[in-house]
Amino acid sequence: MAFFVDHKKLAIFLGLLFIALAAVLVWALVFAPAVDVFVSIKTDTNNFSEAVNFVKEQDKEDIKEGKLYLEERKIEKENEVEFEATGKKNVGEKATGEVVIYSYFSAKGMNAVNAGTRFTISGLSYVANENVTLSWDGSGKSCENDHIIVDGKIQCLISGRVGVTAVEAGEKYNIAKSSTGWETVANVAVYSDKEMSGGSDHIITVVQQSDIEKARNELNAGKESENKEKLYETINQDDNLIIESTFKTTTSATVSTPAVDEEVKDGVKPTLKTTTTTLVYTVDKTKMEELIKEKVNLSENKKIFEIRNVYIDGFKELDSGFTGKIKAVYFTGPKITETELVEKIMGKGLGDASREIRDIEGISAVKMNPSYPWVMKVPTDSNRITMSFEIKDQEGNEIKEKSDGKTEEKTEEKTEEGAEEKSDGSKEE
Is the pTM of this model over 0.85? Predict the structure, then answer.
């Protein structure tokens, strides 16, 4: 007793030392142990090719039936351009006059010239102003003076006059009389015994169809690629696949001011307006991946980690709709979750835990990193086990696993303050 009294300070020190050692042991054996597990997964490469149908009504999309919604994307743009009018038009006066028409009848009959009948000489055309009829009643008395005898039979000459007007304005239609050289499709002969007169020249500039075609080509030149770029900028290509073969540009009927054959006044530039519609179809990439996963037959212990290079081949429109083939490359590996692996190795020695994971088909390597050198076992507290995955294809390229919202994650127990203290004393929010 005297010893403890005499060595009171020493006893207190030893007691405190014992408590500290006990606390250290509890920390080292209970709270400090933690393990970081690094798992390497090597995937298998597979090719996918499947014929599918495409529908333009979203409510008819059916992944299980192989029907994908085909979304129409388009932009419309009004374009206007000035152009040069090169047409020339003579709006002067038209020459007028008359021609003599005649016909020989060997029997009672009638020949008619209708208004609008064309008469041509030396490339210049005139049209009849009115209807004129030539007829013979068959009596010799009616043509005693104007007849000829052919093979002993009378052929009676009947003639008449018809007013004509040149088909277009111009002084060149003011021609002299001519007894020969006239042609017509009517069943009569023709000549002129008077000159044509009154034609005059007044040349104006007008829009002609070739001017419009040239302006339209200039308007569209370079616009297709520009409009395509603007259309594609409106599409989120991370989420949507553009079907390039469906791209097209259409131009509405053009509006020319002035119109074709109308005069262009001095100092005025004609303009051409059009509306261009640029269109392409897209498909939701997520839906395509859903379809691929739906069509791929995998064993229960396998899953798809990533789908790459998705595209549509042979897209075409049929009477019944649209069809094509979805082609892609997909990577498969073991169907495991972090929670499953953690439960499999909790409480086991590091070597046994490593072998337990490595024996799973598709796992290429496992690395255990204990928090301290004396940690030889995997903790029984799942919150002290950190699981990391490295997924690669057969060429060693990293694969980014796309979450489908169904991946099982381990549940972390939180303190009342919403944080769990980690082995290093920090708090994980």
Answer: no
